[in-house]
Design brief:
By secondary structure, the protein is mainly α. It has one domain: RNA polymerase sigma factor, region 2, helix turn helix motif (Rna Polymerase Sigma Factor, Chain: A, Orthogonal Bundle), CATH 1.10.1740.10. The protein is 74% helix and 0% strand. The protein is built from 9 helices and no strands. Helix 7 crosses helix 9 and helix 8 crosses helix 9. The radius of gyration is 19 Å and the shape is globular. The chain starts with a helix and ends with a helix.
Length: 197
């Protein structure tokens, strides 16, 4: 534990890593114990996939594939800095790529759908428009910038987790995020000036 602390990991990160290591060990012995890891990561994995694919159905299907592959690959999990996220997100990214290969096309923006349970139709339309705008902005980014932005904001990964996932140091991740956000702002500014003219 002192090694992890000396490398800059917070006490909470060390606790999380130790907790996840215990969960992985339990899941290796009993697949029913995998449910806790599934619960911890489902929303984060789903949000990342949803923002990459754009449809609820595809996101649900690919998320299910990710967790099936992760369960099958669990014996290969090795304890490392930053826990389970840097191990499951490469599986997630590969599942998205596999989905695109099977589809042989990217889903166009007008196919973006969302099943809402809201009774406020105006709110629902505004929410859909915001998701469409965000998806369009993210499409202007390089693949690495898109991954960093979605891992940070959709999947809520820490910079350390993103760095471990992408095999980059935290400074490089922060720079990719900064450049990606700056590019998104520039696109928004360009679109706003076009609308004004």
């Amino acid at each position: 534990m002192s090694d992890a602390l000396s490398t800059g990991a917070s006490i909470e990160e060390v606790r999380t890593e130790a907790s996840e290591t215990l969960l992985v060990e339990a899941a290796r012995q009993d697949p029913n114990a995998y449910a806790e890891l599934y619960e911890r990561y489902y929303a984060r994995v789903y949000r990342y996939i949803y923002h990459r694919l754009g449809t609820v159905q595809d996101a649900e299907d690919v998320t299910a594939v990710v967790f099936m592959k992760a369960l099958e690959a669990l014996p290969s999990y090795r304890t490392g800095r930053n826990g389970f996220a840097p191990w499951i997100f490469p599986i997630t990214r590969n599942a998205v790529v596999d989905h695109y290969r099977r589809q042989r096309k990217q889903a166009p923006l007008d196919e973006l759908s969302h099943e809402s349970t809201e009774s406020d139709p105006v709110g629902e339309v505004l929410d859909r428009e915001q998701r469409l705008e965000l998806r369009a902005l993210v499409e202007h980014l390089s693949p690495e910038q898109r991954d960093v932005v979605l891992m940070r904001y959709a999947a809520e990964l820490s910079f350390a987790e993103i760095g471990s996932t992408l095999h980059k140091n935290e400074a490089a991740v922060r720079m990719l995020l900064h450049r990606g956000l700056r590019k998104m702002k520039a696109v928004m500014d360009d679109e706003a000036s076009i609308r004004r003219s």
